[in-house]
Write a structure and sequence with these properties.
With about 325 residues, the chain is mainly α. It has one domain. The chain is globular. About 40% of the residues are buried.
Amino acid sequence: MDIFKPIQLFADMATYQWLRIIPHSYLGDTINFFIYDTIKIGLLLIVINYFMAFTRYYFPMEKVRDMLLKRRWFGLDYLFAALLGVVTPFCSCSSIPLFIGFVGAGIPLGVTFAFLISSPLVNESSLYLFPAMFGMKVTIIYNVVGIIIAMIGGFIIQKLGMERYVKPELLKSKSRKQVEQENGGVLKYFWDDGMNITKTVFPYVLLGVGIGALIHGFVPASIVAKYLSNKSWWAVPIATLIGAPLYANSVSVIPVMEALVGKGVPLGTALAFMTAIVTVSIPETMILKKVMKWQLLAAFFGITIVGIMIMGYLFNWIL
């Protein structure tokens, strides 16, 4: 069941009935994509920000944080975060609100990045679409490797000690006593806490989604197929670099990947292209830049892109 289907239906109605744009045209795809993703990410941003405001107030996040920071988990904290990413139906941009909530709640940065990598990379579509399209062997290897990449990426971020590169306003959290002493009390705190983060990030959501919609609607698939069909060693890096600026969720990009494989593009190269699209993108960069400094942003994208290329080479080698 697609929980975002009503949003897609509304986007279709607004684009093709109200605005009377021709379906499947470049402009139609662009406008439809912009309406759909703006509403979806906006709603997720509001819901998750208010949920995390509630959680920060009532849930003992300090105890959770201290427990995760102690060296008794042997990597299970990264595994749990990566598995949480698997079961959340989010693309790279719509997973950011939950990532912001984790950071604000004091969850270790590396653990939150394990979630941010795995959420778009390994999700329900790779579980139920991959077997029919590419077989169970490819499905298992892809999901296992994806989870490992997310865990290693989060671990490296944590080891680099990059907490100082998170925007400080995301790390501010009032105690229950402070909240209760302020005018307006708990309800006002929930409203202000959730709304402040939403107002800070949402303009960048609009800008990022707008850029992604233009790329999504106006970049012809034939150009991509032309450059990815080469079987040279540099095809995987090229596929990753071509896919990185683009933006789509895994459900929409997997059929494109299947078509590329059908045209002779090696599976590993096609996977590198797909995972770059769903894991790193210009819209995601625009949104993340509002909540972190460029040093942390560069480390995240660098680690993720290297992991994607390793996955591409691995599949080209074993299959």
